[in-house]
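TetR family transcriptional regulator
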Amino acid sequence: MTRKREGTAELTLIERARRAQLIEVTIELVADRGYGGASLAAIAERAGITKAAVLYHFPTKAAVVRAAHQHALTALVGDVAGAVEAADVAHRPAAYVRSMVGHLREHPRHTRMIIEAMVHDDGDHDPAARWRPLAELVSAARVARGGSADIDARTTAIIVGGGIDAIVAEQLHDPDYDTAAAAERLIEMLEATLSP
């Protein structure tokens, strides 16, 4: 195993650029062909390099898919976190919904990458990692509006997360679906829970 793979050596500028290219190519292939269509050979072909060169940077298909998935998630989390932090506490759940739906609408390939990677990953996923941040926003918003924190924020967050998933899935099947209007409708329903 090379020192780079062990994480003990710094990647060169060229190596970082090649890894970034391979991540983008993997996102494109997974979005266009699904997980099965993103073979190491297909990634190499689309990147214009050999399969051995792909393996130099990523030891397996699973590794490059994980890196692509992480790249898409990092972009999503960054956008959502920025929008949430820019909003006042009482309106952060709405900012979360708008930014989540908006980002996924603007980045359909990232959306497909996230979905495909989650479906094909054998890892253990903690469902709380998905609902807990929104549940905390819901509780804080309710208190900021003068209400009690004694609401079922977990269930609210799970329902809202499911609504976001359904809106995004509909847009993937029908690119003309008005996800912005759907997000606003979901926010209206959420507002009823947040009002004291």
